[in-house]
Task: inverse folding
């Protein structure tokens, strides 16, 4: 027994080292499974208050640009109102496959971004609204110009968003003009550019095409803009197009986002659970 | 070690962390060069610091960074590794006449031939582990390597500048 203690005492540095490394690695590899219990991220209240102050100072110096963006958005929204007003008459007789409930299926919640990263291979944002404001993990997040990401964890007043600029956060997408399906994946570098995968080389893709979210998307509402095709090539395996997409969301200057509440999300989950499991 | 020195050292540690968290978060050189100035505490800790304190301190420091960077454990892993390897680096780099009891880690005292390899080893070990963990995908290996090299060079430049400004007259 004594020898054991002596051994432990002699090797205490090594043991401490191994213990701490195991804790760190455990945190790295289980993070995604334990997202609701692990508070050591920017939704931690004191970390958030520091970052929020920092962001306020930064925002102050960007008021001019933010004003411009807001004005542009207002203009677009007004246009939309006019368009919708003209459709109000037709609303009375909706096509049979279109239910009344689906008209107000999505509800946006405006949120302020208090922290974000864009330079890592896996990027996150923190917003200043949490489940007290009706935000839940799994909701989609868009900006005034395009998609931003997905809520992965919430506290009372804050939420953590996994950005589209994350190598494992893919978005089901389609080409607006032709309806061709694929998915958007960020390759891990260059904040402005993502890739559109899984589009067969026999389909026509032109530089300048708009990429939007697809209709078969469990997270995002359909037809939210993602980006513009910037370059079309052929992938190494020769079966798919290699498409580079300029993202429409300017992540580096993002200050306000909209979290989209999907009123059907609960029902969708229920249906998914009812699916027979085939393994 | 005088009380005056300790007092100064702690101020510098806090300052390096604050600068890291508030100013260097979004800064990147040519997209891929990052500056991790918070390593100042680990790099400049006195030579005779017991390894237990170094390792524990490294863990706390890394975990704090993880909290702010949303990297959940990656910084902690790298800093603990560097803290653990530091005595080994000292052994590799022993100057001809050994370490003096009172010698501190500074450019002035240790000279270029010792200080640069030391800085390079510390920074590169930390960066390569951090970026590989962060990439989490084999396909990004080249990119992580590039990031680690650029960041090491940037870090060496910054730390050397700090040394030059810090010269005791």
Result:
């Amino acid at each position: 027994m004594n020898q054991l203690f002596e051994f432990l005492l002699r090797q205490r540095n090594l043991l401490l080292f191994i213990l701490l490394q195991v804790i760190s690695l455990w945190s790295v590899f289980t993070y995604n499974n334990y997202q609701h219990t692990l508070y050591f991220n920017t939704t931690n209240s004191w970390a958030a208050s520091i970052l929020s102050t920092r962001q306020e100072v930064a925002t102050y110096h960007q008021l001019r640009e933010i004003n411009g963006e807001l004005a542009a958005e207002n203009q677009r929204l007004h246009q939309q109102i006019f368009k919708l007003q003209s459709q109000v008459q037709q609303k009375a007789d909706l096509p049979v496959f279109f239910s009344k409930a689906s008209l107000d299926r999505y509800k946006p919640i405006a949120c302020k971004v208090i922290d974000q990263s864009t330079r890592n291979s896996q990027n996150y944002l923190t917003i200043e609204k949490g489940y007290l404001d009706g935000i839940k993990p799994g909701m989609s997040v868009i900006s005034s110009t395009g998609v931003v990401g997905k809520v992965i964890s919430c506290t009372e007043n804050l939420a953590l968003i996994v950005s589209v600029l994350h190598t494992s956060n893919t978005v089901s997408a389609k080409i607006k003009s032709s309806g061709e399906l694929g998915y958007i994946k960020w390759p891990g570098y260059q904040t402005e550019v993502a890739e559109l995968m899984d589009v067969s080389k026999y389909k026509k893709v032109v530089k300048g095409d708009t990429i939007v979210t697809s209709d078969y998307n469990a997270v995002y509402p359909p037809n939210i803009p993602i980006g513009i095709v910037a370059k079309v090539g052929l992938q190494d395996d020769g079966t798919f197009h290699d498409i580079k997409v300029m993202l429409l969301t300017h992540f580096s200057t993002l200050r306000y986002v909209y979290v989209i509440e999907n009123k059907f999300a609960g029902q969708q989950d229920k249906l998914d659970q009812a699916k027979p499991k085939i393994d | 070690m005088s009380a005056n020195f300790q007092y100064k050292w702690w101020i510098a540690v806090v300052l390096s962390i604050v600068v890291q968290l508030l100013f260097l978060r979004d800064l990147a050189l040519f997209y891929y060069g990052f500056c991790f100035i918070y390593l100042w505490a680990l790099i400049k800790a006195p030579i005779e610091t017991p390894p237990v304190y170094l390792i524990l301190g490294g863990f706390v420091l890394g975990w704090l960074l993880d909290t702010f960077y949303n990297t959940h454990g990656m910084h902690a892993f790298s800093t603990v590794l560097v803290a653990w390897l530091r005595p080994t680096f000292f052994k590799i780099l022993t100057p001809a006449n050994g370490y003096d009891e009172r010698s501190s880690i500074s450019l002035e005292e240790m000279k270029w031939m010792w200080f640069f390899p030391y800085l390079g080893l510390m920074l590169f070990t930390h960066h390569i582990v951090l970026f590989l963990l962060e990439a989490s995908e084999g396909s990004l290996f080249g990119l992580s390597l590039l990031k680690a090299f650029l960041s090491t060079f940037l870090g060496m430049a910054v730390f050397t500048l700090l040394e030059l400004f810090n010269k005791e007259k």
In short: DSSP finds five helices and twelve strands in chain A.
